[in-house]
TrEMBL record:
Lineage, highest ranks first: Eukaryota, Sar, Stramenopiles, Ochrophyta, Bacillariophyta
Keywords: Methyltransferase, Transferase
Residues covered by region (Disordered): 132-151
GO molecular function: methyltransferase activity
Family of this protein: Belongs to the methyltransferase superfamily.
Name under which the protein is recorded: Methyltransferase type 11 domain-containing protein
One Gene Ontology term from the biological process aspect of the record: methylation
InterPro entries the record matches: Lys/N-term_MeTrsfase_sf (IPR051419), SAM-dependent_MTases_sf (IPR029063)
């Protein structure tokens, strides 16, 4: 990444000129599986009872996907937030230090946008229910349709809306209290911060603040980066985090060089887990 990626003026200019959604590294499809219990459980979570009940579902160590408090760090104009919303994450806060992109994102996700989304999701869910019920037609009587009670228990789609805040992740995040998020998702923003002057202090402040605002018992931070472990693991304090590293092949883009990988660092807040 170029040196200017750590500077707010660079991003303000870029977003002024490039308003269309842009996805750095990879889209939601390439990372969605990391939001499942298989990846979101620390070794302590797995050793505890939590693995029994939630290991395979979307929510991992969290109470529910709907209540999982998500912070998307350095959101830019990525569509990851709206994809997570469609996947049932109901409490999403997006942060970026570019006031230009924050304003654009607030404008894009208007009340009308949410109305359309939830109307579509309701229609799709209804269709899904009809298909599930119609698959019983013609079957032997012992294959029963869902009872009314079961239908009522299908979760309703609430009208959750995402928040957008203009904040510098490398400064004290005074608007967020301790332990106010369950999951922090950071695609490309740490890499951008590493392109600035005074990198060590800024990264340390960012990582300390992320640690502070994560829930003590089950807080997780997912970092998607182009940086290899030998250049990234030194950003994370092993006393504060349990770290798991995964490699994701660079998606094929016609005309672009292939070969290099992306890295997914999953950091589990240590304090309070044991
Ligand atoms: C490489 S882009 C990634 C954007 C988006 N997450 C994606 O995956 O497409 C980095 C983003 O981080 C933001 N950013 C860089 N440094 C930041 C900082 N110190 N605080 C908050 N946001 C920052 C930039 O404005 C930019 O939107």
């Amino acid at each position: 990444m170029a040196h200017q990626y750590g500077e707010v003026d660079y991003w303000d200019d870029r977003y002024t000129n490039e308003r269309e959604p842009f996805e750095w590294y990879m889209g939601y499809g390439g990372i969605r599986h990391f939001l499942t219990g298989k990846y979101l459980m620390s070794s302590v979570d797995i050793a505890s009872d939590k693995s029994q009940s939630t290991n395979k579902d979307m929510k991992g160590p969290f109470q529910s996907t709907e209540d999982c408090r998500v912070l998307i760090a350095g959101c830019g104009n990525s569509q990851v937030g709206e994809s997570m919303l469609c996947d049932g994450f109901g409490k999403i806060t997006n942060v970026d230090f570019s006031k230009i992109v924050v304003e654009q994102m607030r404008g894009r996700y208007s009340d009308e946008w949410y109305d359309e989304l939830y109307t579509r999701l309701r229609r799709e869910r209804k269709l899904g229910e009809v298909e599930a019920n119609s698959s019983n037609i013609g079957k032997k009587p012992h294959v029963r349709s869902p009872t009314t009670k079961e239908k009522v228990e299908i979760p309703t789609i609430e009208k959750s809306k995402m928040r957008f805040e203009c904040l510098d992740l490398t400064k004290k995040l005074t608007s967020f209290q301790d332990a106010s998020f369950d999951l922090i998702f950071c695609k490309g923003a740490l890499d951008a911060v590493l392109c600035s002057a005074n990198t060590t202090d800024r990264v340390q402040c960012m990582m300390n603040e992320c640690h502070r605002i994560l829930d003590d018992k089950h807080g997780v931070m997912i970092i998607i980066s182009y940086g290899e472990p030998e250049n990234r693991l030194n950003c994370f304090d092993c006393n504060l985090w349990e770290i798991k590293t995964y490699t994701v092949p660079k998606p094929y883009v016609p005309g672009e060089k292939t070969g290099s990988d992306y890295y997914v660092y999953i950091l589990f807040k240590k304090h309070g887990r044991n």
